[in-house]
Write a structure and sequence with these properties.
The protein is of the alpha/beta class and 547 residues long. 52% of the residues lie in helices and 10% in strands. The two termini are 23 Å apart.
Amino acid sequence: MTDHTAASTANAAVTWDAPDNGLWSLETAHYGGPTAIPFRAEMEHRFAAGFRASLAQLGVPLSHIEMRHVNGWPYASFFLHDAPRSAGKPPPAIVLKLLSRLHPGFRRRTKVAAAALAERRPHRMAATWSDERSTWIARMLELQRVDPTSLDDGALADHLGRVTAVVSDAFQRHFELIPGCIPLGLWLAAGERWALDAHDVRGAVMHSTPVHEEERHRLQQIADALGDTRPADLDAVRAHSAAAAEALDDFLEHHGGWATGDAVTATRVVDHPDVVLGSIATHRSDGRRSGEPDPTELLDRLRMQVPAGERAEFDRLAHDAHESYKMLDDNSGILGSWGAGVAAVTLRAIAERLVARGALRDADDLWAMSLDEIEGVLRGTPTRTADELAELAARWRALGDLDPPLHLNGEPTPPPDPTVFPAPVATLMTGIGAFLDDKFNDTHRTSGIGTQSVTGRAVVCSDPSDALDRIGPGDILITRATTPSYNAVLSIAGGLIVSEGGPSCHAAVVARELGLPTIVGLRDAVTTIPDGAMITLDPVKATVSVV
């Protein structure tokens, strides 16, 4: 947890100057602290490139989203198409309405938006991901199967180049696929229009992500092979039988290489055998612990509440939303967490080698080097001494003591009502807006997932590594927000509470997949719930009480 005394002291010595005069917001969806330097420049480039490529196909007013670093912390900003940069409020509705219909640039984008809807471009992203998914898995497996410690310096530098290329491509591809959220957003908006229960609307389509289904299947294979045996460690799993050993190796190959943090400094799932063992021990074939209704039953119930003449639209929207949901969560883990794990194991091997020969004082000093500097050391052309790198690394680590402002250049204002735009643009912006609001919870709603209360030990954690070190089966994890890096921990938790995010955030997504009683958006959870206390989590009332 943040030491606010240290943070305040550190903050006094720095200024938080925005990259330009636009509004910039702390990027909390993917990162929980200062970014390690090796991939920082590549992240900034690929983040913007991914959004720019996909948004250009839609004709929406946004041209792209950029990420920049201020004192090492990532900030993001929306860029409007052909608009001057400003942190002020959006133009009045009447001005936007006239501009979008009279300005030649806006009119061209409206034509693009109409074509995007007619060709179902946002909807096709799910099918596109399904087609390319196996290729991405193969790319990750190919890199993961290389033992970087077995390579000489030149070969290791070459391998780092291949890892960098794949991980960077994966990062960009993830952001190219984000506009695939539009069908899910349109489903959420339609549910509100039909006055359907919002909890049921989400539960009816937010299930069965391929990577979670595969993880459950592989855990079930291990459990089936073990029968009634409760092994003490992973060696005992392998020793039990050839079937158990094969099932465990298959699980670790496809899920063990994922990073357990949101940066290249993170460990991997395979580095935490007790957590893997806990996942096996707590696995259940039905995978549902929270009492959430069956999605098919929910969908049938909701359908009967819609006017008969609109049920064909209901069916289409529900199908598209489910495909959208599966794609979003699936690609995030494979392209993000798995890619980060591949990068981490390579960089860690390099760090240990450089420490052994005296080129680094400490392995963690590597996180203050650029990729070019790392390659230069491996190829015999270093540009800094070990002492200089240690000093740079110390300055980088000190950035973690800062308490960054949530926004630079003012506070965000509500986006314009989509109805001010021409119909095709309005439809696309409705989908984007409904999804973002449900994911990031800007209206500060608190909501629960599940119908069964759970009592357990509160474990208040600052990041996935902290959680992995301290959580045990049945504990209730309390943290700011989760990403796919937390998946290994959540598989053994008894409950989950996050202070940020909405009903479609990652924590809520995994809660539905695992049947995990969860509360999202409990704003002061990490500061008011005592670490180590026995608490009861009631997802129906979205409340927490100390026992």
